[in-house]
What we know:
By secondary structure, the protein is an alpha/beta fold. It is built from six helices and ten strands, in the order E-E-H-E-E-H-E-E-H-E-H-E-H-E-E-H. The chain has helices at about 30-35, 60-75, 110-125, 140-160, 170-175, 210-219, and strands at about 10-15, 20-25, 40-45, 50-55, 85-90, 95-100, 130-135, 160-165, 180-190, 195-200. The strands form two sheets. Strands 6-7-8-4-9-10 form a six-stranded mixed β-sheet, sandwiched between helices. The chain starts with 10 loop residues before the first strand and ends with a helix.
Amino acid sequence: ESLGLPVCIPQLLSCPDRRHSWQSLYDVGLALTKGEKVVGNELPPTEKDLFLITGANQGGKTTFLRSIGQAQLMAQCGLFVGGDAYTAPVYSGIFTHFTRAEDKTMSRGKLDEELARFSDLIDGLNRGGLVLLNEFLAATNEREGSELCRQITQALIENGVQVFSVSHFYTYAVSFLGEKNTQFLRAQRFEDGQRTFKITPGEPLSTAYGEDVYRQLFG
């Protein structure tokens, strides 16, 4: 509140209600770390099993995913949420899978490490859970990574788990086009390459505009 950012009491829904909506939802950790206002996001009431987040590199996708995880954890602990409004189901468990640094001992490869870690996650996962995936299996190639991500994501939602997935795999993302239970979200980017750090409804594009970042670094 001292930063001029909104807080609200969330509305929690009982199973099997799967509705999600938010207004001015922001990353509380980022706001406290920077000590200033940060960008919030909106979504009208939506009932989906899979939320697929794609779009421009450095466009705010991971920050948005963190804001979802924080909001849900705080809400289920009986706390306020960083935003003007937040509505979501009560989950049986909240699980995250974010990329980690390379194994310095070189005892296993990056793909092996990710799959082993995800296997441990599944052991504790039950129907009615929430999984947040951030660039899952990004260390492997587009074809292999897309197919593995698709099969794992499909298995999760078929078993009653709601998934928020940030990915740069275009093949993976478009494999869910036409699925009525999928909500596509995309990091907003203007024609001149400017990022707004807003995450808005939008289908995946075949590029993540990495050339924008290249131009910023090397002119």
